[in-house]
Amino acid sequence: MELPVIDLAPYLSIGGGDDGSMVGSELGGGLSHLCREVSLILKETGALLVKDPRCTVEDNNRFIDMMEKYFERPSEFKRLQERPNLHYQVGATPEGVEVPRSLVDDEMQAKLKAMPKESQPSLPKGPDCKWRYMWRVGPRPSKTRFQELNAEPVIPEGFPEWKAIMDSWGYKMISAVEVVAEMAAIGFGLPKDAFTSVMKQGPHLLGPTGSDLSHYGQEGIVFAGYHYDLNFLTIHGRSRFPGLNIWLSNGQKVEVKVPEGCLLIQAGKQIEWLTAGECQAGMHEVIVTNRTIEAIKLASAQNRSLWRVSSTLFAHIASDATLKPLGHFAESPLAGKYPSMCAGEFVEQELAVINLKGNKEEP
User: Fold this and answer.
1) N or C, which end of the chain is more exposed by having fewer CB within 10 Å?
2) Confidence band (pLDDT; 50, 70, 90) for 132?
3) Rounded to whole angstroms, what are the CA distances from 303 to 276, 296, 297, 299?
4) Which part of the chain is the Isopenicillin N synthase-like Fe(2+) 2OG dioxygenase domain (predicted)?
């Protein structure tokens, strides 16, 4: 199965600038149908491919070029940007730190064992062997109960273009997420701004990963073990190396192929909360496949970098906003599974499980 591609241009041409309370019935028939398609695809697959004319192939390439140069630097250099005292929510996260949920969640492990063999993920044997860099994008609240989740970005030395490139690509991807959030809200029968209103000043993170294929290039190696994302929606530019598998709501395992010029969006746990489980957080993994190995051979022949970079951005609900089923979802029989709580508290609980809630006493 290949995911359908949703072109955001028709919605962008007339969907922006309307009153936030607008609902699908106030759109033209074509756009209303497009919004329902967005919500249906997210509900059934947990993932969505989109084309946004504001996010170009050149933008993605410029970003990946810079991140390849960064991840190629020695570990001692990259560790200078490590901030465990801030839950690794800014700066570098070394390989061997982030623990995949499937390694520590007994309930998830039981579900995995019950899956048909062809649908089972590659079970990790330890923490992920990938680096990550967290870069905060967008304005932060002047007052918040969750300072660690809203810390200032870290800039590595020797990269004068760092802030400009990170901010440019980050803001473009957030803009794409906001459009999808509006369309999904309309498709789910909520006001247009139901999601975007609680995203304002959220701790959005541009969090590219770096996986060293020259060292970990053997088929079956797990870079990101089977897990869901804890945030609202995750968006990725196209990686230069394949390896991402997702699981549809029916349990089917699908290898994702992102066409050039497209972006991949995945549902996180926060949208599951806001829709009382109507839109489930998408499960996924990143591993070395035979297609990855073919891409490694080609990159080696062309003398290109063998670091697999994902240009990933995690869009969040604002830390001090309340996470709870919205609108008609509050009447769902499943709403009780999603109790009202502060989004920042939810994030801290999730980070503790996957080993990213650092010791606040560390310098």
Assistant:
1) C
2) very high
3) 49, 10, 10, 6
4) 224-316
